[in-house]
Amino acid sequence: PPQPVPQYREPQPIAVPPLEGRPFPQQTGIQVPGQSVPVPEETGINVLEDARIIKLVDALVNGKLSDITPVIDFNYKAGFAYPAVDSLLDTSEQETVKILDALANSEILIKQPYDRFFVDPDGLFQLVPVEHCPRDDSANLVKGQLVEHFSCGFVGLDKDFKQDARYVCPKCRKDLRLIGTDYRNIGMHYRCGDCGEVFTTPVIKWRNLKTRREWNADELREMEVYSYRFSPDKKGWLEFQLKPKTQLVDFLRLQGYQVQELAQLTGKSGAVHTFDILAIRDDILTKINLGIGILVANTGEPEVKLEALFKFDTRAYDIGINYKVVIAIPKLGPEAINFANRQMIRAFEARTLASVVSDITSSPHSKISLQSSLEAGSSHEGRSPAGNTSATIVRFLRNRGYEVYEKALIVGKSGIEHVFDIFARRDDKLIVPTIAIGVAGYDTGQPVGMEQVAMFDAAAFDCGIRNKVFIGLPQINVQARQFAKQQKIDIIEQQDLGRLM
Ligand SMILES: [Zn+2]
Ligand SMILES: [Zn+2]
Q1: Of 246, 334, 459, 484, which residue is least crowded by CB atoms under 10 Å?
Q2: pLDDT tens per residue, range 459-498
Q3: Are residues 353 and 331 in the same domain?
Q4: Residues 492 and 462 in one domain
Q5: By the 8 A CB rule, do 148 and 196 touch?
Q6: Residue 347: count of CB within 10 angstroms of its CB
Q7: Considering just the CA atoms, what is the radius of gyration of the chain in Å?
């Protein structure tokens, strides 16, 4: 049989206008909404301006965290820590204590004594008491009952008298008979094995089990360890204070996302990760798993370090997040900015969460959507089967709020112009998901081969479009299917079109 010829369709490319003020390709730029903010000079913690504190308070208000009790463990540097809070906030043990105390000072947490112990001047607490002779400081002491033998006047420790089962005076060799009559107990005493001094109260020193150093009692510092409890009468007030995050969540829900706050997810590695906000939307042609991290510069530091961003990215990868957004408070450091660009993490920067959220939620959608509906062909009558399918897809995406372009002309990174059968994007403000769709089909019913899928894939790659859908009518062949799977291209065939109706 003669080779089927692909349907010839005259391309009438439409150049896709860039989104106003937004980087394109999507998700590669750093945005600094609002005016630039001076670096905060104070090194203290401002309750409810410090996003870590907000995160903690949020967990308390939502009941994700209840009583905060210390875990006392020799492995912690300070001897205790609040690991649940450390992992929630990504803070060091010491920083967590600072934050908890700041919240206690603001009467958001109620601080209660939990335990006490001593810390030596090295800051270590593994201390045991060691008794010393007050005369020569020797630790070679014997403790026992001091006994006086009336008849000869000998005074010694009880062990000096003991001979097998009897008590014999070591001076006069007489047996001790009746207490109170021929001898008496004076009381518990110590005797120095080095200088012979007898005394009732040894000097107590504290030996550190780790360093072996010994300290006088007055050199030690007493440490009190506290537990913290959420103050119930602050709940209403705090909920009001936490409004920015609630607004962001509401905004995402309005965009059709299913939103989980402080979402705990188990990654491919088996580790459990917490995301500040996880937003999922299944647009059928593309599934958006949006992970949002609120990253805050360490106390006293002017910017969020690379390390924090790296951690976020690693977690996102482990969970399978395909859209990554960080809100950096107040901003990212230069290394972190480069990393964000490379890893396609979209970053928003501002002094406070409130200012980021008000920028995101109040800025108008790009004006493109109006133009696009005019430019994309409005009449699909008299089209071929492929044309009819395109019309279905366009309608489907428009109904889901996408700007849709047919025969869209996009210039790739290489400088080459590519024409996509359908290009769609949706300005969710936080992210702008884009979809490239290729359509191919033969009237003869011959399956579409790999070459067309591969060309489509290369073009999408060059244009930095991550969501790829290839429609093969009536179907595509086995190699093309394998290739598509490997390249994460969604395949739609004649039989699947029903789910888009
Ligand atoms: Zn005697
Ligand atoms: Zn002594």
Answers
A1: 334
A2: 999 998 989 999 998 889 999 999 999 999 999 988 888 8
A3: yes
A4: yes
A5: no
A6: 25
A7: 37
C-alpha dist (Å) from residue 255 to 245, 279, 283, 337, 432:
15, 10, 12, 27, 12
Report phi then psi at 86, rounded to 5.
-50, -45
Q: Which ligand is nearest to the CA of 152?
A: 1
389 with 347, same domain: the answer is no
Number of domains in the chain: 3
Ligand number, closest to the Cα atom of 169: 1
Choosing from 330, 364, 398, the residue where a domain stops is: 364
Statement to judge: residues 358 and 371 lie in one domain: no
Ligand lying closest to the C-alpha of residue 194: 2
Give the distance (Å) from ligand 1 centre to CA of residue 192: 22
Q: Find the 131 Cα to ligand 2 centroid distance in Å.
A: 11
Mean pLDDT for all residues in the chain:
82
pLDDT at residue 264 in the model: 83
Instruction: Please give the torsion angle defined by the CA atoms of residues 61, 241, 225 and 75, in that order, rounded to the nearest 10 degrees.
Output: 80
Q: Where are the beta strands (DSSP E) in 395-501?
A: 403-411, 417-425, 434-441, 467-473, 489-493
Is 62 within the bounds of a domain?
A: no
Is 357 in the same domain as 441?
Answer: no
- Nearest-angstrom CA–CA distance, 365 and 426: 10
**What one-character-per-residue DSSP string does 290-332 give?**
EEEEEEEPPTT-SSB-HHHHHHHHHHHHHHT-SEEEEEEES-B
Binning pLDDT at 50, 70 and 90, where does residue 284 land? confident
Report the CATH number that the domain containing residue 397 is assigned in CATH: 3.40.1350.10
Which pLDDT value is given to residue 318? 94
At 371 the pLDDT is 39
DSSP state at residue 179:
B
Instruction: Give residue 171 CA to ligand 1 midpoint distance, Å.
Output: 5
Ligand found nearest the CA of 174: 1
Structural domain containing residue 390: 367-500
- 480 CA → ligand 1 middle, Å: 109
Is the N-terminal amide bond of 474 cis, ω within 30° of 0?
A: yes
Strand, coil or helix: 184: strand
- Cα(115) to centroid(ligand 2), Å: 36
pLDDT of 37 strictly over 90: no
Task: Identify whether 166 is part of a domain.
Answer: yes
Is the residue at 66 inside a domain?
A: no
